[in-house]
Amino acid sequence: MVRPYLPLKALRAFEASARHLSFTRAAAELCVTQAAVSHHVKLLEGQLKVALFTRLPRGLMLTQEGEMLLPVLKASFDQITHTLDQLGEQNYREVLNVGAVGTFAVGWLLPRLADFQERYPFIDLRLSTHNNRTDMAAEGFDFAIRFGTGAWHGIAAQPLLPASLSVMCTPDIATRLKTPADVVGETWLRSYRTDEWTQWLLAAGLSSSVSVPRSIVFDSSIAMIEAAQQGVGIALAPPSMFSRPLTSGALVQPFSTAVSLGGYWLTRLQSRPETQAMACFREWLTMATNA
């Protein structure tokens, strides 16, 4: 079979631009000018007769056609890179890009990574953290571990761990919390999910219409718990992810009340075929979270 002409420079320019959502950052990665990247992408769009990006005042946004093309190109370029590395080093290694919500990465995954590396020495794991909001196609993730209910459009999701939320604070603050109603007198540390404290109040048998006290919003539970350890306020977070400060006594749980609004999930794009490294990581993670 005679293959059609493949505009490799244009395809590389598009793939890099799509990952960064920026012609400028793609140009820096490819060591060419921003104008050259933009030109190659326009040539590719002209050849395909579709727009791959929506040009915005600040950056780019993938069109539906661009979202369809990106995972195919990324997988192809990754496979070419892996094969060349294998030929050059005579030592096969496979790269695995995983994005994990910071709470899970620090509280559960990092303490167990040595076991994964020992079991699968041929996998080079590239771990990035995020605040639960991620674009897997644009960021080039094979997997993303995130918190939620498992409902994400175009995403295959496998449940990993439940994550009930409970009040945590310093021992000094805990002495002021005689009953759940006393939380209203403290500064609340919370995430951007506005219903968490409301649901906890209901679970504790209180009215959800109580006057909301002063609160501080965090985009990371890790930062929230650090603030709680410094006595800034009381945090609502999953104790299972913060066993170290609880074990050391830096934090305590003044009440047994907990509320479940979701859990941790292993997710991937439905359009992304599973590689050997992905299968190994999924099987290891499933085994470890069920242990």
From TrEMBL:
Residues 6-63 form the HTH lysR-type domain. It comes from the Bacteria. The keyword Transcription regulation applies. Keywords: Activator, DNA-binding, Transcription, Transcription regulation. PROSITE patterns: HTH_LYSR. Pfam families: HTH_1 (PF00126), LysR_substrate (PF03466). InterPro entries: LysR-type_TF_proteobact-type, LysR_HTH_N, LysR_subst-bd, WH-like_DNA-bd_sf, WH_DNA-bd_sf. Belongs to the LysR transcriptional regulatory family. PANTHER family: HTH-TYPE TRANSCRIPTIONAL ACTIVATOR AMPR, HTH-TYPE TRANSCRIPTIONAL REGULATOR. This is LysR family transcriptional regulator. It comes from Halomonas citrativorans.
